[in-house]
UniProtKB/TrEMBL annotation:
Family: Belongs to the peptidase M14 family.
Keywords carried by this UniProt record: Hydrolase, Metalloprotease, Protease, Zinc
Stretches assigned to the Peptidase M14 domain: 65-378
One cellular component (GO) term of this entry: extracellular space
UniProt record, GO biological process: proteolysis
Protein's UniProt name: Peptidase
GO molecular function: metallocarboxypeptidase activity; zinc ion binding
Top-rank lineage group of the source organism: Bacteria
Length: 963
């Protein structure tokens, strides 16, 4: 022992002499020789020495390196003890349990009045009960309110470091200008909107930091690695979640923002490392629901902010690529009357970046840019606060005016059996202060518009439907998230088409469709009236099942999304469950297709099976039905027949890393955790060929630019053929839909050589839905010599070369994100819990082709009668699109639901398969053309994914029964 200790000590000394100095330089020093030393003065003036300088708290000069979430939190809590200008509110916790703080900064007098100020703001926000004179009195008393938020993307770090700088400056400065600013202002600083992502990126900086400065922005030091630091724990982009409200960071943040209704909200980001600095105002397209007065103020703020940059010789630009159309960014606050400004600073790690002109821009300078922008915007707000309040008040009056823009429009969600999804939808609205009502009896309206744009006359809205009048205090927000189409002016469309044709670029920064009812897959109407009669405010009625009565089985209704979790969790507990594949009725209680049943005969060793089922139903908020008689009258299924197959416990793995999209992998991971709550694994795609896949019966392959090796593909094929359920999304689905892939489904580009076969398969599906029949022909004894095959009258397909040429043209116009109408196979187990018509999110994704060897469970486009179609024999075939398919005589397709889908894109997308299912050996392959859980909010298509994961092993594959 003594010798070993001596040897260890000697080795440590040698290591210290030769290694530790360099190692210390990497991990211990602030890397102050990172590049050229920044000469600008980040903090200047006289400061209260009783307030600890951030350099002392951090252990390095603020802005010289990236402060970790722990360091930022510790600094703020220290200042909270030292300063009477600061009040800290923890408004949420992340998935990794890091606190999210809102730092309120003002004079001690103002901070003592926070509750009163907030109450006055709340009063001013609802013009239905406030007079002009009272509003003016409130405005005269209200201080300016600013919400300054930073680093919602965790690897865009300079904003949070600038936030630390700003907090210290505002609470410690003894300059008169700061005192004057705070006398009539409350500044709320949200310093670090995504601490989980920032922690991930800060860790990667430690891992890749070298002994010498690295100014190469392509290096891992600057970029990080999969899944990168941009997103939160579940890899969600939090700057797309402001009204979807899927993540705890957003839920807490939006709740507090909406309480305070700030006059100004800034959002500090970073962009490409070779860029300069972007600030408002935004360019077109602008969402037409935003108060025009805010655009006026955007110019005012930009003039002051650009002047501050000019004074320091810093380059910048306004607008250019930044538009304000999608309401899910931080500009969400604009729909509630807040002035919003985006900061985009060129991104760099601590070592700085070499610029195209040969200079090196340091990280400290980037932090300085964000800090100067912050102070410039606060100064502008101080000058114009009262005028902005007056514009705000005018906007609030317009929102509820009986002859205003939003006066006569109501959004209706039709009554349905999917209580879980409907409640979740309402929860999102109530969380944003939107008033929701429920019809107390059937209601007839003169006119209504459907998701497909069809106008209905004398329509009955059934009892129990949701009613959301647009004429409310927050009418612009309601319109933005519930109107079926977001308006866009012709000039934008012209520019977009020109850019598309010129070089394939776009003026659209993000998705062009986001309607919440479509995303949730809830049938809805827009009614051009302000509905008020026979309504009651929505109240959620929780389900609480008493001790279940004796029976032979217990069931929950399959229309509710939560029924899938009911099945999955019980199976994980070792309880056998069954699936009803058609509508059923037992003891006069109706159960929808897809309902889940637990029987006494399947679970002889579970004497308390009813108790387990009841506990699980209560946990999920589901009503538990007791079945005492398993006889189904007429054609209804009996409890011992083929319509109640036994399910198999899913054993799930998600394939991730490598070239897999972290967004889609994260959304899938989050969906399983949140909607199912069952165990599952993640597998590195690079390890597929030597992973023991026998442990799983479900593999989910999120979208990615995967290029399987022969070994990986062979492993997947063997696993599927032995009974596995392989589910793939988007580009990963395309990788499997090849000649050398798995199964017979192909992408559109790979199917032109057999266009007629796909057309015949499509026509076969159409005929299978037809109820027309000639009984005399069927019962005839004589051979019909005039019999014609269904394809006899179809036009001759274009040549493969011509189809490819046309497709290359149509491909130019694929959407950046729009909602397409899908028709679902309502006899297939994958579609339980979905409606006949299902909104589908489409973008530049692969298009799938399914023939008679596979099942097209969901296709793009809904058949409709074409009144203009000719009925003569000579006109047959004129309904052809001139592509791979032919429309039945007298029929057309409704394709676009919402967003920008050029006519060319509709031609290309129409009749392709969104969801396919194919048996391969004992297993199956399930392919999604797109990403079924888009941003965690496309609940209609996410139900398809949940069905595939939980029901696939029992309903879609063959397995051996242990005897």
């Amino acid at each position: 022992m003594k010798i070993l200790k001596t040897t260890s000590t000697w080795f440590a000394l040698v290591l210290g002499l030769f290694v530790l100095p360099a190692y210390s330089a990497v991990l211990m020093k602030p890397n102050k020789e990172a590049a050229l030393e920044y000469k600008g003065e980040l903090l200047s003036g006289n400061y209260n020495t009783d307030i600890t300088h951030p350099d002392s708290l951090l252990g390095f000069p603020v802005g010289s390196r990236v402060a970790t979430p722990k360091q930022i939190h510790s600094a703020i809590m220290t200042w909270a003890e030292q300063s009477d200008r600061l009040h800290v509110v923890e408004y949420a916790r992340t998935h990794e349990q890091r606190p999210l703080l809102a730092v309120f900064i003002s004079t001690p007098t103002r901070l003592a009045q926070l509750d009163e100020i907030k109450a006055n703001i709340d009063t001013l926000s609802d013009a239905r009960n406030v007079s002009d004179s009272k509003a003016n009195a409130i405005i005269n008393d209200l201080p300016a309110i600013a919400w300054m938020a930073y680093s919602i993307h965790g690897n865009e770090t300079s904003g949070a470091d600038a936030a630390l700088t700003a907090i210290y400056h505002l609470i410690a400065s003894e300059e008169q200008t700061v005192s004057d600013l705070l006398d009539d202002m409350v500044v709320v600083i949200d310093p670090m909107m995504n601490p989980d992502g920032r922690a991930r990126f800060a860790k990667s900086l430690e891992q890749y930091r070298g002994t010498a400065p690295n100014v190469d922005d392509q290096s891992l030091l600057h970029r990080g690695d999969w899944p990168y630091g941009r997103t939160n724990h579940y890899f969600f982009d939090l700057n797309r979640d402001f009204f979807y409200l899927t993540q705890p960071e957003t839920v807490g943040r939006v709740a507090l923002i909406n309480q305070w209704r700030p006059q100004l909200m800034i959002d500090g980001h970073e962009m490409g490392p070779q860029d300069t600095y972007l600030m408002g105002p935004p360019r077109q397209p602008l969402n037409q629901n935003i108060d025009p007065n805010l655009q006026k103020w955007a110019v005012t703020f930009a003039e002051d902010q650009t002047s501050a940059f000019d004074a320091k010789g810093w380059r910048y630009y306004t607008g250019e690529w930044f538009e304000n159309w999608y309401p899910g960014y931080s500009n969400y606050a604009e729909y509630r009357g807040t002035m919003h400004i985006l900061y985009e600073q060129s991104r760099m790690a601590e070592d700085g970046v070499r610029r195209p002109e040969g200079t090196i821009q340091t990280y400290r300078e980037a932090v300085h840019h964000q800090f100067v922008s912050t102070m410039a915007n606060l100064d502008t707000l101080a000058k114009h606060s009262k005028a902005m309040y007056k514009d705000y008040w005018q906007g609030r009056k317009n929102n509820v005016a009986s002859k205003g823009k939003f006066a006569n429009r109501t959004f209706v969600v039709l009554a349905n059996d999917n209580k879980g999804r409907t409640d979740a939808f309402v929860d999102r609205l109530l969380a944003q202060g939107i008033e929701v009502y429920v019809t107390q009896k059937d209601m007839e309206v003169d006119e209504a518009t459907t998701h497909l744009g069809n106008t209905l006359s004398d329509t009955v809205i059934p009892k129990g439907s949701l009613v959301i009048p647009n004429r409310q205090p927050d009418a612009p927000l309601i319109a933005a998230i519930l109107e079926f189409d977001a308006g866009v002016n012709d000039a934008v469309l012209i520019e977009e088409r020109q850019k598309t044709l010129r070089d394939g670029s776009s003026v659209m920064y993000d998705t062009t469709a986001w309607n919440l009812t479509m995303m949730y897959g809830l049938d809805s109407l827009t009614v051009p009236e302000h509905l008020t009669k026979n309504l009651e405010k929505y109240r959620q009625t929780p389900i609480s099942n008493a001790t279940p009565s004796a029976g032979i089985a217990w069931a929950v209704d399959g229309a509710d999304d939560r029924s899938v979790a009911f099945a999955a969790r019980l199976m994980e507990q070792g309880i056998h469950v069954r699936f009803i594949d058609k509508d059923a009725k037992y003891n006069n209680q109706t159960l929808n297709r897809g309902s889940i049943v637990v029987t006494v005969t399947d679970n002889p060793n579970h004497t308390e099976v009813a108790k387990h089922a009841s506990q699980m139903a209560n946990e999920l908020g589901l009503k538990l039905v007791t079945i005492q008689n398993g006889y189904g009258k007429g054609d209804l299924p009996d409890w011992g027949g083929e319509h109640l197959p036994l399910l198999t416990k899913p054993q799930v793995a998600i394939i991730s890393h490598g070239s897999i999209s972290s967004y889609d992998a994260g959304a899938t991971w989050w969906s399983i955790d949140t909607n199912l709550g069952i165990r599952h694994s993640q597998i590195d795609v690079n390890a597929l060929s030597y992973t023991d896949l026998r442990r799983y019966n479900v593999l989910v392959l999120p979208s990615g630019r995967v290029n399987f090796s022969n070994g990986q593909l062979a492993a997947l094929k063997a696993w599927v053929q032995n009974g596995g359920t392989l589910i793939a999304h988007d580009r990963s689905a395309a990788a499997l839909a090849k000649e050398d892939g798995i199964g017979t489904v192909r992408t559109l580009e790979g199917a032109f050589d057999k266009a007629l076969d796909y057309d015949i398969a499509l026509y076969r599906e159409y005929l299978a839905e037809s109820e027309a029949i000639s009984s005399s022909s069927v019962m005839a004894h004589t051979l019909d010599t005039d019999y014609r095959y269904p394809w006899a009258d179809l036009p001759k397909p274009q040549s493969e070369e011509e189809l490819k040429r046309r497709d290359n043209w149509l491909k130019l116009f694929m959407p950046s994100g729009a909602i397409v109408a899908g028709r679902t196979d309502q006899l297939h187990w994958l579609t339980v819990g979905t409606n006949d018509i299902l909104p589908l999110m489409y973008s530049s994704q692969p298009l799938l082709m399914s023939d008679s060897r596979s099942q097209a469970v969901v296709r793009a486009g809904v058949y409709a009668n074409d009144k203009a179609a000719k009925k003569t024999d000579e006109a047959k075939g004129n309904n052809s699109t001139g592509r791979w398919f032919t429309l039945p005589e007298g029929k057309t397709l409704n394709v676009r639901m919402s967003g920008l889908v050029w006519p060319e894109a509709q031609q290309r997308i129409a009749n392709t398969a969104y969801l396919t299912r194919e048996r391969v050996g004992k297993g199956q392959v399930i392919l999604f053309s797109g990403q079924p859980n888009f941003r965690g909010s496309s609940r209609g298509t996410n139900r398809l994914l949940l069905n595939a994961i939980v029901y696939g092993p029992g309903l879609g594959s063959r397995y051996n029964i242990d005897l």
